[in-house]
Design a protein that fits this description.
- By secondary structure, the protein is α+β, with helices and mostly antiparallel strands.
- It has three domains: 92 residues, Butyryl-Coa Dehydrogenase, subunit A, domain 1; 108 residues, Butyryl-CoA Dehydrogenase, subunit A, domain 2; 132 residues, Butyryl-CoA Dehydrogenase, subunit A, domain 3.
- Helix content is 47%, strand content 14%.
- Strand 6 and strand 7 form a beta hairpin.
- It is globular and about 65 Å long.
- 45% of the residues are buried.
- InterPro entries: Acyl-CoA_Oxase/DH_mid-dom, Acyl-CoA_Oxase/DH_mid-dom_sf, AcylCo_DH-like_C, AcylCo_DH/oxidase_C, AcylCoA_DH/ox_N, AcylCoA_DH/ox_N_sf, AcylCoA_DH/oxidase_NM_dom_sf, Mycobact_Acyl-CoA_DH.
- One of its GO terms (cellular component) is plasma membrane.
- It comes from Vulcanisaeta souniana JCM 11219.
- Keywords: FAD, Flavoprotein, Oxidoreductase.
C-alpha cells in the first residue's frame, strides 16, 4: 500500500468514526479503559467493538483463517491513531484477549486452540483475563505457588491469583501454574486456558483509588482443566509467559503512548508554554517508537524484552503530563467543568507506572536482558 493510499484510508476512517461512533463511546482526554470498569458502558463498549469488527477495523492484520482480515499492518496504526485523536473508544472489547491471550495462542497454541478461540476474541464473544501475579509473587513470577496436578486426562489447579484485570467480565482465564517443583522455578511452569465458569473458581473485586473494581483476587480450589487447554508444552509455561508479558507491555505501553500524545495535545491547547510543548514532543517520540515496534510484532515477529521500554517510557510521560496539568491549571481541575477530567487522569496515572511491571522492575529487565548489564549493578 502506497503512502497516498494510506492517507486516503486515514480520511475514510476519520469520516467513518465521525458518522458512526455513538456518544457514549467518546472518552475523556487521555482516558484509559474507563468504560471497561463502568457497568453502564460495558454492554455499549462490546456492541461498539462488534460494529468496528464488522466494518473491518478490528483484526486488520490478523490471519484470515482465524477471523482476521489479513491486511496491511499500517492500517491498524492508522485506525488507532485516528480513534484516539478523535477521542473515540478503540477497540472496545474489555479484557486481555486481543493484546495478550491472542498473541500467546497465535505463537504457542495448537491449531485447534487457534481455531476455537481467536475468532471469538476478535468478535468479543469471549472476554479474557490473565492470572499471573500472586500475593507472594508479583515481580518474581518464577516463584508462583499455584499448583497444577496431573490427574491423567486433566489437571487440577489450586492456588490464589491477584490483580486480575477485568476478571469479573471474563469467561476465559489465562493461568500460569506450577507443574514441577518449586526448586525448578522457571522450568516447572505451565500455561493453561481456564474456563471461568468452572467449578471451584471464586473471586473478590479489588476496589481502586478511583473507586472502580477493575481488578480481582481469584481463588482456584480443585479446578479441573482438560489437558487440551495447555498452551504450548507442559513445563514450557515460562516461554509462553514471556511472550504474553512482552505483548502486554507493548500493548499497554502503546495505549499509554497514544493517550499521552492525545493528552499532551489537549494540554497545549489550554496552556501553551515551553513545558507543555516539551511534553508533547516527548510523547510523540514515544508514540513513534511504539508504532515501529508494533509493526514488527504484527508482521509475526515475537516481541522481545525491548517492549518493556515502551511501557516504561509511556507510563512515565503520561504521569508527567497529568502532574503538569493539575499544577498549571490549578484548583479548577477539582471542580465540575471543562477541566475536571484532568483530576481523574491524575488519579488514574498513579497506577500506570506500577501495573504490568513497575518502572524499577522494567529498568532492571532492560539493563540485564537488553543492555547486558550484570545483575545487582
Amino acid at each position: 500500500m502506497s503512502e497516498s493510499e494510506l492517507e486516503r484510508f486515514r480520511d475514510y476512517v476519520k469520516d467513518w468514526f465521525i458518522k458512526n461512533a455513538p456518544p457514549e463511546m467518546r472518552i475523556r482526554r487521555g482516558g484509559i479503559g474507563w468504560y471497561y470498569e463502568d457497568p453502564r458502558f460495558i454492554d455499549a463498549a462490546i456492541r461498539w467493538h462488534r460494529t468496528l469488527y464488522n466494518a473491518g477495523l478490528v483484526g486488520i492484520s490478523w490471519p484470515k483463517e482465524y477471523g482476521g482480515y489479513g491486511d496491511d499492518v499500517r492500517k491498524e496504526l492508522v485506525v488507532r491513531d485516528v480513534a484516539l485523536s478523535l477521542g473515540i473508544v478503540y477497540p472496545g472489547c474489555p479484557g486481555i484477549g486481543l493484546s495478550v491471550a491472542g498473541p500467546a495462542i497465535l505463537f504457542h497454541g495448537n491449531e485447534g486452540q487457534k481455531r476455537r478461540y481467536l475468532r471469538r476474541m476478535l468478535t468479543c464473544e469471549d472476554v479474557w483475563a490473565q492470572g499471573f501475579s500472586e500475593p507472594c509473587c508479583g515481580s518474581d513470577l518464577a516463584a508462583i505457588t499455584t499448583k497444577a496436578e496431573d490427574r491423567g486426562d486433566y489437571f487440577v489447579l489450586n492456588g490464589r491469583k491477584v490483580w486480575s484485570s477485568d476478571f469479573h467480565l471474563a469467561n476465559y482465564y489465562l493461568v500460569l501454574a506450577r507443574t514441577g517443583s518449586p526448586e525448578e522455578r522457571h522450568k516447572g511452569l505451565t500455561m493453561f486456558i481456564v474456563d471461568t465458569r468452572s467449578e471451584g473458581i471464586t473471586y473478590r473485586p479489588i476496589k481502586q483509588i478511583n473507586g472502580r473494581p477493575g481488578f480481582s483476587e481469584v481463588f482456584l480450589d480443585n479446578v479441573k482443566v482438560p489437558k487440551e487447554n495447555v498452551v504450548g508444552k507442559v513445563g514450557d509455561g515460562w516461554r509462553v509467559a514471556m511472550t504474553t508479558l512482552n505483548f502486554e507491555r507493548l500493548n499497554i505501553g502503546g495505549a499509554f503512548a497514544y493517550a499521552a500524545a492525545s493528552a499532551a495535545r489537549h494540554l497545549v491547547e489550554v496552556r501553551r508554554d515551553a513545558d507543555t510543548l516539551a511534553l508533547l514532543e516527548e510523547s510523540l517520540a514515544i508514540k513513534e517508537l511504539y508504532d515501529r515496534m508494533l509493526m514488527l510484532a504484527l508482521r509475526g515477529e515475537i516481541v522481545g524484552p525491548e517492549a518493556a521500554s515502551i511501557k516504561l517510557l509511556a507510563s512515565e510521560i503520561l504521569d508527567k503530563i497529568y502532574i503538569a496539568a493539575v499544577s498549571k491549571l490549578g484548583p479548577e481541575t477539582l471542580v465540575e467543568g471543562d477541566l475536571f477530567e484532568w483530576s481523574f487522569g491524575y488519579i488514574d496515572s498513579k497506577g500506570y507506572t506500577i501495573l504490568s511491571g513497575t518502572s524499577e522492575i522494567l529498568r532492571n529487565l532492560l539493563g540485564e536482558l537488553v543492555l547486558g548489564l550484570p545483575k545487582g549493578v
